[in-house]
Fold these 4 entries.
Entry 1:
Amino acid sequence: MKLTAKIKLQPTPDQHASLLATLERANAACNRISDIAWQERTFNQYGIHKLVYNAIRAEFDLTAQVVVRCISKVADAYKVDKKTKRAFKPRGGIAYDARILRWYVDRREVSIWAVGGRQRVPFVAGQRQLELLQGQRGESDLCLVDGEFYLFATCEIESPEPSDVDEFLGVDLGVTNIAVDSTGEVHSSRAVNNVRHRHRKLRAKLQAKGTKSSRRRLKKLSGKERRFATWVNHNVSKHIVEKAECTGQGIAVEELTGIRGRVKARKPQRATLHSWSFSQLRQFIEYKAKLAGVPVVAVDPRNTSRTCPVCGCVDKANRRTQDKFLCVDCGHSGLADYIASVNISRRAVVSLPNISTTLDVAA
């Protein structure tokens, strides 16, 4: 499987200026390529290459492989749709391959092409990142993050085959509770929601103030909420995968893709709904499970919290409140999210088909 190692570069002031100029020139080339592609209505990589390769090399004084990577970046941007002309930020990330970037992991440095020639730039990395870099394959993206340069390297690592399981640990994802599994364990989102609410109020207050010091404070706060939510999701996903691995179960999650477009929320709830990081949590569960050899199955979430796991009754009235489930038919009750997780675990179990056989009877 593929994982990404985030590696921090430590360039000298001159190297920093050179890398910055490289980003700006490469993205200017991308914008020029996008202009031509849009005018000619040509969006595939081979067609764009024939149109612009020589002209871009001459105009922007870039090496052959950097131009190829710029063309690839533009072509990839138009794969989403061809209805809107693509524009690129002056300091957006650019991709490097083995021809213009070489890793020297033992010396903790990279040889990277930049404006003005090749540069030997040292980097720092933890033990986990160094282990990942042993399997570095393909492209690495050079990005400027808060004034610091990072390389996001694609690394191939071995992962075990998913084990055969008979049961699944159902996981219900929600806003009030980050996750509730089919053993009844609840991972509350109270801490995350409190941080989001506090930061939302503080941002509104600072934005209304509009002073230089308030803008400095806003800049300092930038990303703090997101990092905290990511840290919580990492911990929750790790715990869920470890539980499934120890109990010999697979993991069943809800297929919530597009839920924000399907759900209508009242105005006070919209900010909470749109800051819900269910997709990130599912991604974390999936890649950690793959590393552990635990199968993950996505199931249809429809009526999971309205279906009684005892008698099978499906009724909107079964879910009395956000957290309370009470079956109108048999009277079974419990935490609504737990009921949903039990139904999710059962939906993930694939029943073998019943096969009828006929015997030939000799006359």
Note: The first strand starts at residue 2 and ends at 9.
Entry 2:
Amino acid sequence: MQAAGAQADSPQVDQPRGTSASGVVGFLYRIRTFESFQYSKFRMLWVASCGTSGGYFLQQVVVGWLMYDLTKSPFWTAIALGLDSMPQLVAGPIGGVLVDAWDRRKLLILLPMYQATVSIGFGVLVLLDLVGPWHVIGFVVLMGLSWALIEPSRMALTPLIVPRKNLINAYSLTQLAFSVTRLIGPAIGGVLLAVFGAGPTLLLEGGFQLSASLMAFLMGPQAQPKTPANLKGVWVGLKRVAVYARATPLISGLLLCGIVSPLLVVPFTSSLMPVYQVEEFEVGQKELGWLLAAIGAGSIIGGVLMASFASAKRQGRLLFFVIFFSALTMAAVSHIPYYWAALPIFVIVGVCFTLTQTLSSALIQSNVRDDLRGGVSGVLMATWGFMIFGSILAGLLARSLGAPNATLIASALLVAFIVFIAVRFRAVRQLP
């Protein structure tokens, strides 16, 4: 799929390495599910992605448990778990424009170092028993600021190190990194939380983030097109992105599809998980980790499916079907009162989440203009800023009606939302 005005594969794309018949990477490449791993810089970027997302999921386990333990409030728990996305609503588009002007690799070195510093500092405060609810909120906001630049940097760097024909596969594998750590991170976090407590778990989170910084450093320099980084340039860049997105129904529709998960899926499943754990399933901290890990297992399945069938036809219609099936799965979650019965349902939630995110982001990157790639990536990241609104709604509904009824209402809203997008933006439905 080529967008209008798209350029040919950059000559600076990393050359394949390690693809000999006897090499492990060569074997994975021949499977085609893992074909982008033939590029050495992409392999390093993938490991860096594992580091940052691994730290994030440890953080989610700690923040959810810590806030509920401090407040006993479903509302504040949902707010704390969704608040790190709020800075992205404003900073995401600005960050995307800055990514087009700054060195993306250097950003991927420095920002995880910043995250590690914040995580370790907060972990020390927890160990000293100096933390209250507002400290948790401050920690989440400080961490959220960095994601406004990390994700657009990663998304915009990928086309510089893999050819355009491999982009959907590469983005699928990046989502798979997110999914692998979504499985392992909560499981490890739940055990560490139960055995050692919140402070040591936060120190380990800092270690994950430092490993991501190291892998980005080892990638070596990477040339990229740049635009001047000044206030006027940022404002002009924002206007260009806004005009382009509004004038391109395909991009507008796909960006709206990107809002689905942060607004109506994650706040009513993952963010309400501590509430389900205590009030519905009546299980402990280890079981909370396994509930979140179930979503991670589904995410891995979804990531492998997407990477394996990156060339499937009718991907726009597939995207709508997956979102509709997400709504049905959420309705099922709201009717299951037992812990063990909920685990396979949350696996399906993870599959649908990954397919939705991978399809929407990969289709955008496959069709967007090269000179606006960072800016549009920033807007896509900004859609995660809507998670705070979904978290507020989830918290209010769960407090007054209970978590199951809140999830059921969200599933109905999700159906209505996706029907609107499918009718209004035919360009997405008509993707070949």
Note: The chain has a mean pLDDT of 81.
Entry 3:
Amino acid sequence: MSDLTYFYGIDLAKQVFSIHGVDPHGKVIIHSTIKRAKVLSTFANLPAGIVGMEACSAAHYWARELIKLGHDARIMAAKYVAPYCTGAKNDANDARAICEAVSRPHTRFVKIKSPERQAIMMTHRARENWVHERTALINQIRAFLAEFGIVVKQGRHAIQRAIPEILEDADNGLPEIARELVAECYEHLTVLNQRIADLEQCFDILVKASPTAQRLMTISGVGPQTATAILAAIGKGEQFDTGRDFAAWLGLVPRQYSTGGKPKLGRISKKGNKYLRTLLVHGARAVIANLKKKNDKLSQWAQGVLLRRGFKRAIVALAAKHARIIWALLRNDSEFEYEYAA
């Protein structure tokens, strides 16, 4: 990193922003609080430099706008800023800490997403939210019916089949008010099912338009949802030096606590992107459940892990293996070959 670089830190908010900047010699050139409408005009009049900001919902938008003005915008996790925050917790001190953190050579930054990639991630977040809402609604309906002695089998499809029969049964002791409420809940459940199905069709459309996503789907356990989510989250994976770095970012590597030259590895760290980790683990679970039908080298490797370490550890190991394979396909722009994957 050059010694003749201007560094800026901006504490993002909705309406009021704090900015702290220093010149190449460490002298403060700006330390002020401005309104949202003046952010871009203020940076347009500042010397071009590296602008740091904490990761948040609007960070990618502001990073793209600052890049248009000639600055080098960088997004970082809040945990990299906290060690440099001194004094009281306020916006001005946060901006100073961000400015200090962005100037450190070992700070890790978030890859800035394009509007298209952000839109795809919004689609995934919307589906995830609706799935959680559907699960909560099903549990609520089940609880409502249990209060009147009506117990339904577990499972989403079981309760969806049972509700119409329960509503039509006039002798089950369900009061009219409760019957109407359950009917409204069932109608809302139908709407949620349709919305989730529509988004899953959207994933299929995105895959058909993306040759890279199609290459990722040649890996067992990687479907349209996983492929599109990974492409939207990391692009070509150039922010990771190795496949293990990507697996570590997903939280699929052991937690390390080593000292005195003695390496100690514990459980998987579960750090990083929980959503992608969940997708890869679920995909690996499906693969492990059908290993007996396959004889390729990757399946034989997974079978060996399954015999030595058990079902759950084999799932995590295969998910980590898939993460490394995905990174290699993205970085090398290559095709997946089962005979060389293991």
Note: The beta strands are 7-11, 16-22, 28-35, 50-54, 72-76, 254-256, 265-268.
Entry 4:
Amino acid sequence: MLTPASRRRDFPALDSMTYLNTAAESIPPLCVGEALQTYWQDKLCGMRGRDAHFKQVEACREVAARMIRLQPGEVSFCSCSSEAYNLLATALNLQPSDEVVVTNLDFPAGATPWLTAATRPQTRVWQARNGELQVDDLVPLLNARTQLVQVSLVSFYSGHRLAWAPFRDAVRRLAPNALISVDVTQALGRVVLDCVDADCLISSTHKWTLAVHGGCIVGIPERAATRLTTHAGGWFHLRNAFEADRFQRADMKAGAASFSVGMPNFAAIYALNAALRYVEGVGVEAISKQADPLVAEVHAGLVELGLKPLAPAQPTNPTGILAFLHPDTAAIHAALEREKIHVMHHAGRIRIAVAGYNTAEDVGRLLAGLAGALK
């Protein structure tokens, strides 16, 4: 990932394209494919294969806990971030008098469960200003009725990174009853996390963690476990799933364990275990150190081309994402695709993602391609 030789060895698919779309889908290293083959071989053992399956779950829990700086007992898995947030909503069981704060830079998975609840709380939106979430704009939204503040550490939309400490301090001071939930999908595996004192951390697994679909990491520290225990049906999250009293009561495991309501997606767990260990072996700090200067180069290049990045330059706290608006994004995207330069375009927005496997040559091809498309 950090040298031409290791990049070629671990990511051979990158030899044929310039891939700058990890914020949507990663290119997994070959070890992830090997892990999926191991799952297949274990699965061929039938019921006996479950011993290996559950060993993978515990191994994945261990490495995931290290990555988000929690204890293994504070980490579990479900199928996707949307499932995690809907389970979070069952745990909170909010009422019309309660308030939730979300941001207009959040992904829908974290922002919409409060709008679809049978009993809807009042939802307040923290609006970005000049591309940034500023704590001064959050302060008027916080009060004793605030039960949850939901944010993304890094915005999927623009790449803006939340200034964590001032945000956290404002919530703890002004909303004493509020839990803080943070989506780290666009951060985990790409930037060093500084939000580990949140009450709930949620991450999809098919982006910067370099794994596949069908997984989601849920981290809930022990201090928040009682309040953040889901009220969903199922069996895997129950202590008494097969006990004599199972039809009289459901005794749920507390906190993160309650988010694993059914049989784990073992294939996704095998892949995630391999991917996280690969990222851990390279080192998130090393990934950031290599990729962050490329992000700065892309930002400067966009400005030079007359394009305005949606988030301000973040030299001291960069992320892997840059984005801009343009009336002809479809044409720009098509021109880049013809050159095998892969970025995301949606609703008038082009989004560029710079990962640890990207190179200065990738950035040069991108900026040259954009210059040609804009003529």
Note: The first strand starts at residue 18 and ends at 19.
